[in-house]
Amino acid sequence: MRILGVDPALSITGYGVIESQNDKIFLVEAGIISTSAKDKVTQRLDKIYRAIKKLIFDTKPDVLVLEKLYAHYRHPTTAFILGQARGVICLACETAKNTSCRYSATRIKKATVGQGLASKTQVAKMIVNLLNLKSLPKYTDVTDALALAIAHSYIMKGVRL
After folding, report:
1. How far is Cα 158 from Cα 144, in angstroms, rounded to an integer?
2. Rounded to the nearest 10 degrees, what angle do helices 120-130 and 105-112 cross at?
3. Active site residue 39
4. φ and ψ at 10, to 5 degrees?
5. Active site residue 67
């Protein structure tokens, strides 16, 4: 199964594509989609939309995985911005006739690290270990996206760490 994990944001959206075969996981591609704060919000959203559509076309994932939206009540603007980025990603997924699913952050951490309250550092180190990477990716957005993809593969197999 080919899985695309996406960690959406307006400035830096992380993505990671893995291939899950039997009990093995292989990295296919990972990176970021960055937008400039100097551009209009509509231009930034369009860039994310087009990049995700191209990524879906190029990598042909079986499923796209997103984190469920969580925003603290003290930061409503963050929720709106994140919602807009998630919205164009969901639209790209739908127009490509691709399946998508969502998991809570604690579910992702539980599936990848074994602890629902794991830190970002713990998640990142586990991703490096699971994928046999030589070093941590520069952006935590990438490790978060890879964690989404890996967690989905584990959840679908019913594997518990």
Report:
1. 21
2. 40
3. no
4. -75, -35
5. yes
